[in-house]
User: Fold this.
Amino acid sequence: MTAFPKIELHVHLEGTVRAPTLKEIAKRNDYALPDDLESMYAFRDFAHFLTTFELTAGALQRYDDFRQVVVDYAAEAASHGAVYLEGIFAPGLWRGVDTDELFSGYCDGAVEARELHGVEIRLTPDIPRVYSLDDAMTTARFAVEYRDRGVVGIGLGGPEAGHPPEPYAPAFALAREGGVRSVPHAGEVAGAASVRGALEALGADRLRHGIRAVEDAGLVDELAGRGTVLDVCPLSNLRTGAVASLAEHPLPRLVAAGVLCSISTDDPAMFDTDLTRDYEAAETLGLSPRAAYEAGVAGALCDAETRARLQAVGDGYDWR
Assistant:
């Protein structure tokens, strides 16, 4: 049976690199990997995840690495029915990678992915919350520079607790003035104040995670009224301990309140998941595949023509 169409708005490209590919890339870059690499992919806790993420990011050093990562994940996502995805990547300023080479690799990879696998891809670089404002502004400038090559948004990632969004407002304002939209992480491990800060200080067009908005009923009503889409990643939330169990996930309450929720994997290689499993988890929580897809259409930062094509795919599929 053909997989039903899916949209994924929240996937970290570094977090899609599975162990065999990482070994291949590391070998050509003469980059040392631990002997027990496979065990690094067995999630233990968030600190362990960050170590694995940084190990992977460190191996990605050249244009062909970044291009390959996009193309490889497009093939995987397409096998699960993906027709559109927005890939997140960290610009790598802290590890001395040539930023133009990095952006060009990801952008060209998105074009190649569409040609080879039929998946439309847009890109959204993330500002790690440990960046200085100067580094954040640099990321915003690059995002604007590459807007015509598929960069549609800019995010805020990294450790949410203790790193509020407000200090990064100037970078998001610069991006917005250049036509790049705002898609920060908020409300994953920090509470409703983080979500409100992302909305007000960063002008969030969409929220990555956002699930802890349920702690403020007024905020939930505001999200529903605005039509703000949340990128919900059920199995990621379970792995990281953002929720204690799937049964306790806030997704049903958000949906019942009228909040639009799309479904994504976050870091599939590192959280032992894939797009099918996350959609299945969401369905057990009462979110139908069609509703998840339609939220994805609503939240996508693509142009009107692409959105119309995505809507046509959804309208033309027999969801029964």
